[in-house]
Amino acid sequence: MSFFDGKLLIESASASGIEAVTKREIIKLGYNPSGAEYGRITYEGTFLDVVRSNVFLRTSNRIRIVISTFTATTFDELYDGIYSIPWQEIITKDGSVVVDAKSIKSTLFALSSIQSISKKAIVKKLCSFYSLDTLTESGSIYNIEVSLINDVCRVTLDTSGEGLHKRGYRTLVGHAPMRETMAAAIIELSVWNPDRVLIDPFCGSGTFPIEAALIALNIAPGLHRSFSFENWSNIPQLRDKVNEEAKDLETLDKEVRISGFDIDPSQIKLALKHAENAGVKDKIHLQVQDMRKLSSRFSHGVIITNPPYGERLLKEAELKELYKDFRKVYDSLDEWCAYVITSYKGFEKCFGKKADKTRKLYNSELECNLYQYLGKPPRKEE
Ligand SMILES: C[S@@+](CC[C@H](N)C(=O)[O-])C[C@H]1O[C@@H](n2cnc3c(N)ncnc32)[C@H](O)[C@@H]1O
């Protein structure tokens, strides 16, 4: 039996601040995750579950398989721990080995040494098993991460390849796009559900409306992209089976009320293209419109948005004016909820209203706050 045919320890990596959302998603997918620390959530499964996690999880950044965990405070311990792993069951004879290193609060902290010693141990083990002097490394890539946290070394194999935020629909680059995984997490954190109205008045390249539509229609986020495990010849071939499962679960007839607006026609053009790529163009309404003109015939609904935040997009004075005007529009919308993510620290002051809840999140590397205005329950929304 090969390594990939047995029970595996699966690790999902999430952005800081959204681990709990990913954990809920993992439970919903049928697994029993243990802790969630340092952005890592682990659970047991088989290779089928690795494939399902890659295809179905909306808020996870990547899926890894945990190969080994041991204590290492010296380079000899690191070398021996890595050498003792049965690499021949994991990496093919022609496999190309790429090692990344990470160290947090550990005695061993020189990343280039951790990386080169780990790679040496893997290559030596494979050469010894296959009776080779050198590895050709002419085949598929296996990305190994050696991460030391508090002197505990965790060796993992990446199965995703490109980060899972890359769903495949965003083919053009917007002004300051939101990561798809973060957008999905914010939607999951909000009170919105697919029966409610959703508007993004600053939608840019369309990430919030598209992610909301994917959720509403139950379209799996990873359905149309590839993953690094698909290049490996030594794994059970399960991608078609999982795609079939995903297709069966789609609810494409669902009526949704999701809109996105942006003042910039070039952004709406991008958003339309992305919505088309994602297969939701006919489901969402995207239109060029200044936020100041926003109105709705619904007395209840949910705004989820990432307005300009100054660093790249607007001067501070303009930004303050924009946020002030946004408040006027919000007040005109009767009893709506609003979820506003911005890195601009003075948002509440300019908006003139303290949020009911605030949550610190990172959009890529940028520290942001999610300001949550909870409105009233959807009494009259129907
Ligand atoms: C931070 S970006 C939004 C990025 C978007 N979440 C995405 O994923 O692509 C802010 C957007 O607000 C738009 N914007 C700026 N002023 C606006 C206004 N007065 N009304 C509507 N949109 C505006 C910009 O054109 C920009 O696309």
How would you explain this protein's 3D organization?
The protein is α/β, with parallel strands linked by helices. It folds into 2 domains: 3-158, VC0802-like (2-Layer Sandwich), CATH 3.30.2130.30; 180-222 and 252-373, 3-Layer(aba) Sandwich (Rossmann fold). The protein is built from 10 helices and 14 strands. It has helices at 19-28, 47-56, 75-83, 111-130, 180-189, 207-216, 239-249, 265-278, 316-332, 347-351; strands at 8-13, 36-37, 40-45, 62-71, 96-104, 141-149, 152-158, 197-200, 257-262, 284-288, 302-305, 337-342, 357-363, 366-373. The chain has a 7-stranded mixed sheet with strand order 2-3-1-4-7-6-5. A 7-stranded mixed sheet has the order 10-9-8-11-12-14-13, with helices on one face. It is elongated. The mean pLDDT is 94. The structure holds S-adenosylmethionine. S-adenosylmethionine (SAM) is lined by residues 174-178, 201-205, 207-208, 261-264, 267, 290-291, 306-308, 313, 322.
Strands, helices and their partners?
Elements: E1 8-13, H1 19-28, E2 36-37, E3 40-45, H2 47-56, E4 62-71, H3 75-83, E5 96-104, H4 111-130, E6 141-149, E7 152-158, H5 180-189, E8 197-200, H6 207-216, H7 239-249, E9 257-262, H8 265-278, E10 284-288, E11 302-305, H9 316-332, E12 337-342, H10 347-351, E13 357-363, E14 366-373
Parallel strand pairs: 5-6, 8-9, 8-11, 9-10, 11-12
Antiparallel strand pairs: 1-3, 1-4, 2-3, 4-7, 6-7, 12-14, 13-14
Helix pairs in contact: 2-7, 3-4, 5-6
Bound molecules: S-adenosylmethionine.
